[in-house]
Amino acid sequence: MNNSDKQYKLLLVDDEKAWSNNLKDELGMLNLEVIYEEYAKNALKRIREVEPDAVLLDVLFKQKNKEEPPKEVKPTFDQIKAKYTELPVIMITNTEATDTYVPVDYTGSAFSISKGLLKPENVQTYVAFAKKIRKAIEGTENIENNIAKFKDLGIIVGNSKAMRDACSMVLKVKDTRSNVLITGETGTGKEGIARVIHYYNNKNSEEPFIAINCASFSEELLESELFGHEKGAFTGAVNERKGRFELADNGTLFLDEIGEISLYTQAKILRVLEERSFERVGGTDTLKVNLRLISATNKNLPQEIEKGKFREDLYPRLNTMQIDLPPLRERMEDIEILYEHFVNKLKDELNMKYDISAELHPSTKNALKSYSWPNNIRELRNSIERAMLVRTSSVLMEKDFSLKGSLENIENNVVNINEIVQEILDGNHKEERNLKLCEGNPYCRSILKGVIDELVRKTGKIPSFRDLTKLFDIGYDSMRQQNNKYGLPGLRNWPID
Questions:
Q1: Burial group, residue 237, by CB count within 10 angstroms (0-12, 13-18, 19+)
Q2: pLDDT digits over 380-438, tens only?
Q3: Residue 304 near residue 259 (C-beta atoms within 8 A)
Q4: What separation in angstroms does the CA of 249 have from each of 68, 85, 211, 274, 476?
């Protein structure tokens, strides 16, 4: 199918129903499906529901009090662009008849058009408008060509919107020297993305990429690892040693788990970023360095700043650009792609003597897509490797994976964790839909863990034990029993009130 024949889905957010209905009809005849939303406050919710290819957003919305002037939609626009980076947003204005004017505060939009131009008698204007919409949408599809190069570097992205948004951020920074902060849960592939940023551009391929896990060293050893030391600087320093900053000169230094380092070491890193210089431990000579710093963390650094555990002045120097990697449970549509990739890769690594099918049995597919994957892609890869080693046939079955709390026979028992969490955050989690998850439910662990992890990730707040009983509408004792039975990770250490 040619793109000109493809029917794209548009979300129109506008408070003029009559005008919107006319636009819906006109664009419908031009093979563009329009879904209408009257209220700007519902825009994000509708985007999640509809998953449009583009958004048509009115600049001004009438107030309930008709005597008040119309209110600009800028906060909604900013929220959309922050959450859906690659989603084209087309502004609908009430300015003079022009299709080139873009309000200064909406420069992140694809383009804008005046309502004055979109009249039933202006057929050619509608045709031109539809063409511009298609061009804006199809421009975002070019990311697929870049994602293909990610695969050449050993990184499988998938087709989920969450990962495509992350990849679009990678493409924006790959040719710069800006510092990057990569956030995400353990096992989401933060180092892989860091390597893509470094190696994507051929001119960087010959420069060093130096990685270090900051959580693997004590404070004293980490200082030496980062900055190097002079001979005799401390007991055991029998030779001069270059640190990671020095080794990464002209290239990229990747600091994994940067949220784990001490305030003292943070201060030294800040100095390097500000002055591009440092001294080795025990040394007096000032060394100059020119590099890009990519950091990664699974912690909420603004929350750590509030606790006094992370320097407020270091944080903005690290995240000139921030890339958020979604947990695997938020991109379940990528499971099959990742599965095929790891199966084919592991066949070579494990030197398998006979074929293993990359096809998933339907029950296996359901099980993999319903598991919460608390350790994300890393856990998926390890589970696949185990399954390949213990399999009894060429097709991997659910029993081969040994998932904790995995779902068996789940055709009628799939729970949408993201939907539940969003309802909770939106205040729409209705009593009749409260999950009585743990009353005899064998899937308790996967569902509970997925919902809890997602709530903690999005809110930065660890719920109390009693909070959880209210959330899941189950008895206090039942929750404790289920924790004892399923051993929900981390739950034993949570506040019990």
A1: middle
A2: 988 888 888 877 777 888 888 877 544 333 333 344 556 666 666 666 654 434 444 44
A3: yes
A4: 59, 32, 13, 15, 56
Segment 88-98 shows an average pLDDT of 73
Burial degree of 402 (CB within 10 A; 0-12, 13-18, 19+): exposed
Q: Treating both helix axes as pointing N-terminal to C-terminal, what angle do 362-370 and 335-349 enclose, rounded to 10 degrees?
A: 110
Give the list of residues 6+ apart from residue 373 with CB closer than 8 angstroms, or none: 327, 328, 329, 379, 380
Reported as a single tens digit per residue, the pLDDT across 155-199 is 777 777 778 778 878 877 887 888 999 999 988 989 989 988 888
Question: In the block, which residue shows the tokens 């080795």?
Answer: 280
The conformation of residue 462, written as its DSSP 8-state character, comes to P
> What sign has the CA pseudo-torsion 67, 69, 70, 75?
negative
Pairing of strands 89-93, 54-58: parallel
Which residues, including other chains, have CB under 8 Å from residue 63's CB and lie 6 or more apart?
Answer: 69, 70, 71
The predicted-structure confidence for 277-323, as pLDDT tens digits, reads as follows 999 988 888 999 999 999 999 999 999 999 999 999 999 999 988 99
Least Cα distance to 368 among 438, 190, 376 occurs for 376
Q: Do residues 254 and 294 lie in contact, with contact meaning Cβ atoms separated by under 8 Å?
A: yes
Q: Which of 211, 90, 190 is nearest to 140 (CA)?
A: 90
Edge to edge, what strands does the sheet with 180-183 contain? 209-213, 252-256, 292-297, 180-183, 321-324
SS3 for 13? Answer: strand
How is residue 132 written in tokens? 């511009």
Q: Could you tell me the domains of the chain?
A: 8-141 (3.40.50.2300), 145-324 (3.40.50.300), 337-401 (1.10.8.60), 417-493 (no CATH)
Characterise 278 by phi-psi region: left (phi > 0), alpha (psi -120 to 50), beta (else): beta
Q: How far apart are CA 7 and CA 286, in angstroms?
A: 61
Q: Distance between CA atoms of 293 and 218, rounded to whole angstroms?
A: 21
pTM for the whole thing? 0.57
What's the Rg (C-alpha) of the chain?
26
Q: What local confidence, expressed as pLDDT, does residue 132 receive?
A: 87
- Confidence bin at 487 (pLDDT 50/70/90): very low
Name the band, by pLDDT with cuts 50, 70 and 90, for residue 347.
confident
Instruction: Give the residue, 248 or 361, on which the prediction is more confident.
Output: 248
